[in-house]
Every structure is written in C-alpha cells, then in structure tokens.
C-alpha cells in the first residue's frame, strides 16, 4: 500500500495517464497514510458491513475498506480517475466501482447507488450500511444530509470534510456555526470530530483545514422525531430566518398551515419566550416544536367541517 499511495507514486500515475486533479470535482487526495488508516479504523468495520465510499480517488482508502468489510461500493464521478482506480483495485472481488455521480440532485441520492446498496446488503445476514470516505468538498453536505433520509439508514458515517463544515455539524445552540444542518444531524446522531487536518496532508493542497468526523446514527433518537420529512422541512424553513425572533420565523415557516394565534399557542406550549431566536433552540426543543405544530395542524383539520 505504501508504494501505491505516496505522493510521488500518485504524481507519476497521473503524469503517465495525462490526468490532472480536477478542482470542479473536489479532488484532493489524502497522502498521509496514517490518516487513511485512522479513517478506516474509526469506522470499526466487520464482514457484516456494506461500505459506501463517495470519491474513490486512486483507491487508497478503498483498499483498506475492502480488506475489512464484507462489500465496498465506491463511487467516482470522474471517468478517467475511475479507470485508473479500477486498475489499482482489480485484485479485490468485494469492490463494486460505480463511475457516476452519487447524487441524482442536491436532495436525492442516485437510484443506482441506492439499488446497489440494497442488492449488496440483501446478500449479507445482519448487514449494516456505513459511509466511509474522503468526501469531495462540493458534495459533502448533500451526501451526509440525504443519507439520513435514505433507506437503508446508515449505521455509521466516518468521513473527511472541510473543518468549517465539521464545526457546523457539531455546533452547539447559541453559537455562530449552529444551523439547520446541526439540528438535522444532532437530532438523530451522536457526533464527534476525530481529527483536524492541515492542507499539507492532501495533494493538491486545499485552501482550508479539513477534519475527520464520526457520525453515529441513533435509532432511539430518530424515533423521537416522528414525521422526519416534516421535521427536516420545518427546521430548514425556520433557519432561513435564524436572526429573527422565533415567533416571526415560525410564522413564516408555517404560513398556510397555522395562523398567528395558533403560532402563539405553540410557543406557549413550548414554554419559550417569543423573542427567542431559532439558533437558541436545542435539537430536542426543535423536535418538540415540530410535534406541537403537527398536533395543532391536525387539531385544526379535525375541527374543519
């Protein structure tokens, strides 16, 4: 592995293939082998696991995943890079390399990717889905967010992303990084930033620091949410007006669902001051707010002749 994944080896392979890393695909290759090993080790892989890797690169991480997991589905959008990776990984019979975009659009994963995941999981008793990847920066947010909408639901996600994005995901209420994404992930997952990484561990060097983040979905947390789709949509709409008072932000978010008096009743039941801002509510309070909105809506619908 060491020979194949050194900077000089990658540069030689790219030169021979006439290929240059493409910034539009977010291609930054992790060249610190200890960090590649750390990503794989953190995921705690077993033969039960079906691993999704988005951004195959030259297969340095893919190899480690294939040595530890039952099946690896690795997705690479760049055709020439996928061809080089296929050559590097030809000795493995438990790797499926898909040359395509992992996303159908910003709100949906590719149906081909999802079908392949379900196919591989159906062949393994007690199979678990894990996302383990050096995620291209330009698709990191939709990949992580959409996987939490998907079926099967991931059992774990261990990925490298921009440090700024990792901080947003792990942020606490009342901080500048706290966002709808923070609420969406933390409402159903445990989150830890494993390691912050400088640009020097990548080739080409990105302009920002990166981080390895460990996201562990929790079924009991997700169960508290109830209507997951409504929750996700409401949180997103409320955070469009994060600096407004919660009363105003909620009125805008539920326009056409609840009137102003009903919004006031929801906030009274939630026992928060109307001058509270969205960014001050914890994920648990956002879940409770969503349930109160739904209950009020259903009550209003039931009362309509």
Structure overview:
The model has no long low-confidence stretch (mean pLDDT 93). It contains 14 helices and eleven strands. Helix 5 links the parallel strand 3 and strand 4. The chain has helices at residues 2-5, 7-17, 33-42, 60-68, 79-88, 111-122, 140-147, 163-170, 180-186, 219-225, 228-239, 246-253, 260-270, 283-303; strands at 29-30, 49-54, 71-76, 95-99, 103-105, 108-109, 128-134, 156-162, 189-197, 202-203, 210-217. The protein has 305 residues and is of the alpha/beta class. It starts with a helix and ends with a helix. The protein is elongated, with a radius of gyration of 22 Å. The protein has two domains: 2-220, Vaccinia Virus protein VP39 (Rossmann fold); 226-303, Helicase, Ruva Protein, domain 3 (Orthogonal Bundle), CATH 1.10.8. It is 45% helix and 19% strand. Strands 4-3-2-7-8-11-9 form a seven-stranded mixed sheet, with helices on both faces. Strands 1-10 form a two-stranded antiparallel ribbon.
Please sum up the structure shown:
This protein has 305 residues and is of the alpha/beta class.
């Amino acid at each position: 592995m060491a020979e194949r994944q050194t900077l000089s080896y990658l540069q030689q392979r790219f030169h021979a293939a006439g290929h240059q890393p493409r910034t539009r695909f977010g291609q930054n290759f992790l060249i610190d082998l200890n960090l590649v090993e750390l990503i794989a080790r953190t995921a705690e892989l077993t033969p039960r696991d079906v691993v999704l890797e988005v951004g195959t690169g030259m297969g340095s991480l893919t190899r480690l995943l294939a040595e530890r997991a039952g099946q690896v589905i690795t997705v690479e959008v760049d055709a020439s890079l996928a061809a080089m990776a296929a050559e590097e990984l030809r000795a493995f019979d438990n790797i499926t390399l898909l040359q395509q975009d992992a996303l159908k659009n910003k709100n949906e994963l590719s149906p081909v990717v999802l079908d392949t995941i379900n196919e591989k999981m159906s062949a393994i008793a007690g199979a678990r889905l894990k996302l383990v990847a050096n995620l291209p920066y330009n698709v990191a947010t939709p990949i992580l967010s959409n996987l939490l909408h998907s079926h099967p639901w991931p059992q774990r996600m261990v990925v490298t992303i921009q440090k700024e994005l990792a901080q947003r995901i792990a942020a606490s209420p009342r901080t500048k990084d706290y966002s709808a994404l923070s609420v969406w992930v933390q409402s159903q997952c445990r989150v830890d930033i494993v390691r912050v990484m400088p640009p020097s561990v990548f080739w080409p060097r990105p302009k920002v620091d990166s981080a390895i983040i460990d996201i562990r979905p929790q079924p009991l947390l997700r169960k508290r949410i109830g209507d997951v789709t409504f929750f996700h949509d409401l949180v997103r709409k409320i955070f469009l007006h994060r600096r407004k008072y919660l009363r105003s932000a909620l009125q805008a978010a539920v326009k056409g669902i609840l009137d102003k008096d009903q919004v006031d009743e929801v906030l009274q039941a939630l026992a928060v001051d109307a001058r509270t801002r969205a960014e001050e509510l914890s994920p648990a309070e956002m879940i409770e707010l969503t349930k109160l909105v739904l209950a009020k809506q259903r009550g209003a619908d039931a009362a309509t002749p």
